[in-house]
Amino acid sequence: MPTGTADVLLRTEGRAGIITLNRPRAINALTHAMVLALTAALTDWEHDPAIGTVVIEGAGERGLCAGGDIRAIHDDARARGTASQAFWRDEYRLNARIARYPKPYVALMDGIVMGGGVGVSAHGSVRVVTERSRVAMPETGIGFVPDVGGTHLLGRAPGELGTHLALTGTPVGAADALLTGLADHFVPTAALPDLLRDLTVLPAEEAVARHAVTPSPGVLAEHRPWIDACYPADTVETIVERLLDTGEPAAKEAATTLLAKSPTALKATLATLRRSRALATLEDVLDLEFRVSSAALATPDLVEGIRAQVVDKDRDPHWNPPTLPEVTDADVARFFVRPPGGDLGLSAARRAAPDPAARDGA
């Protein structure tokens, strides 16, 4: 019998503890209550000797999780409230917890996996994508910056692939998720029920190995030459110029995509990615991202971006400032200032209580 809450169903089968995100009409978008329920489940199962593996899946046919509840963030930002910061404090702690979890954490990344959905899956130890997977950090399109450790993941992708994905918000399929390090294995959607059944009786890696196959080719490997040539630039303006000068149709399309995004969010994202690459741990990056997310709440573009994409759905955001040259260095610097409510402090907590079970590179 499932337990948990209406939006997070928990059940145990054999040696597996199974989490089902259960808001299918919202593509299982995360609320603060869901984050707390996930955290409590991980705590309970960590200390339960009967549980050998934790599995997370999404209810419905559309995806694991489309991200956080951005309507709630929109309303909070308009009201200049503190609910979003409280949500992110617990969400980012959950992301770090998943990355350090001492038992196999298997994420079934079927369908849409975006934003906060990446946070509860791509930090896991066993990450499974399917032919239906569409994995993305699309935040620049709503005037926001990739968070939930997204700049940690994308900053460590081969070459400049992560910069391309972070700035454009382009969704990737299975092969490209494997290439960029967002996933580990490809399993066809039709095989997921059998995989889940095997996870209840077998060690996680053994169960996945029974069903993992090679996916159809992606597109990013083919585009690596122009991506790696254009995106190392120090400014978004230079990146756009290089993309337009390559003569590659796909590069020109990427430039067009960038010019439709929030100029402020693009510059803050590039700065965050560059900084995150120099940081040693996921906790360091989450601390950085908390500053950036908190600062984004005070920008006009976050409210306007969510309005245009989600609330009114007119797909016609009016960014402020409207162009890249009008976003100053001082505008970007404000994203890295200590927030009024204080820093997240994950890195300090990590140093104070090292976890011997931590995975290398997490």
Describe this structure in words.
By secondary structure, the protein is an alpha/beta fold. Helices cover about 45% and strands about 10% of the residues. The chain has 17 helices and 10 strands. It has helices at about 30-45, 70-80, 85-100, 115-120, 150-155, 160-170, 175-180, 190-200, 205-210, 220-230, 235-245, 250-260, 265-275, 280-295, 300-310, 330-335, 345-350; strands at about 5, 10-15, 15-20, 55-60, 65, 105-110, 110-115, 125-130, 135, 185. A 7-stranded mixed sheet has the order 1-2-3-4-6-8-10, with helices on both faces. Helix 1 (about 30-45) runs parallel beside helix 3, helix 11 (about 235-245) packs antiparallel against helix 12 and helix 13 (about 265-275) packs antiparallel against helix 14. It is globular, with a radius of gyration of 20 Å.
In short:
The protein is α/β, with parallel strands linked by helices. 46% of the residues lie in helices and 11% in strands. The radius of gyration is 20 Å and the shape is globular.
Topology:
Layout: E1 3-4, E2 8-13, E3 16-21, H1 32-46, E4 53-58, E5 63-65, H2 70-78, H3 83-99, E6 105-109, E7 112-114, H4 116-119, E8 126-129, E9 134-136, H5 150-155, H6 161-168, H7 174-179, E10 185-186, H8 192-199, H9 204-209, H10 220-230, H11 236-245, H12 249-260, H13 263-277, H14 282-296, H15 300-311, H16 329-333, H17 346-352
Parallel strand pairs: 3-4, 4-6, 5-7, 6-8, 7-9, 8-10
Antiparallel strand pairs: 1-2, 2-3
Helix pairs in contact: 1-3, 2-15, 3-14, 10-11, 11-12, 13-14
